[in-house]
Write a structure and sequence with these properties.
This protein has helices spanning about 1-15, 20-35, 35-40, 75-80, 125-135, 155-165, 190-210, 225-240, 260-265, and strands at about 50, 55, 60-65, 85-90, 105, 110-115, 140-145, 170-175, 215-220, 245, 270-275. With about 280 residues, the chain is an alpha/beta fold. It is built from 9 helices and 11 strands. Mean pLDDT is about 90; it is low at about 265-275. The two termini are about 15 Å apart. It is globular and about 50 Å long. The structure holds flavin mononucleotide. Flavin mononucleotide binds near residues 64, 66, 103, 112 and 176.
Amino acid sequence: MLFDKIVRPTLYRLSYHDPELVHERTIAVLARLSKLAPALGGALRVDDPVTVLGLRFPNRVGLAAGMDKNGRALPAWAALGFGFVEVGTVTRLAQPGNPKPRLFSLPASDAVINRMGFNNDGAEALAAKLARDGKPGVPLGISIGKSKVTPLEEAVEDYRFSLRALHPYADYFAINVSSPNTPGLRQLQDRAALAELLGELRSTSLELAGDGAPTPVLVKVAPDLTDDALAELLEVALEHGVAGIIATNTTLSREGIVPAESGLAGQGEDCPAGR
Ligand SMILES: Cc1cc2nc3c(=O)[nH]c(=O)nc-3n(C[C@H](O)[C@H](O)[C@H](O)COP(=O)(O)O)c2cc1C
């Protein structure tokens, strides 16, 4: 109520109604607050613990990938009460993402259109930040994706690089093959491509684990798959020891967009997301 009626409208007014600026400013404030987070402790923490994937989550509500791609405000998310944080999606190479504007607010439809395109500082920068600042006090998921300039045929190496760089810090990995904003990425959900990718990542993760338990690897799927494609994907995931499915990424559907905003919705190649 307070957020819907006061906080969000104020943020939008102060940011010239530019949703990306609202996002950037929110992260900047939370990054500053993160320096105080030890003092804040877990003031807003909700304790309703659950153990999944061998990890103890203080509660079931986590922060999805895309909000804090570069892990700039990790202690603040934990202090705000989130039960886990998924950072990323990060890619092997730092990249600027799609040209702006690339985030659109559709208030009457209660939606946003996201066509960010994996703007991020790269896997090594995130690893350096985590080495320097440490992890949040809640499980940390790291979402990895393919760099835009990497051809699809070389995708495996791209993901493997990020897996290696970030392995010391991840409580689980999310393999993002379902963003609509990197051309061709969703083809990695097809049987042969996915089998190769998951097979290689599985052996790398076993090798990195040595005698310890391998870090769980999850796959994030698109909501736009047909039932048959989804069944096939699940089969491949099971065959390759995937620990879980993250459902779901941004949709391509325009269902639920009110007619007055359908013109704007048509501008992106992608995806309303309830907000
Ligand atoms: C601005 C924006 C950026 C996002 N970036 C990512 C991303 O980098 N990686 C990812 O896996 N999902 C990303 N997502 C998808 C969300 O994590 C989430 O899966 C999606 O919004 C669907 O959930 P919802 O229906 O609760 O919005 C992004 C979503 C938005 C709105």
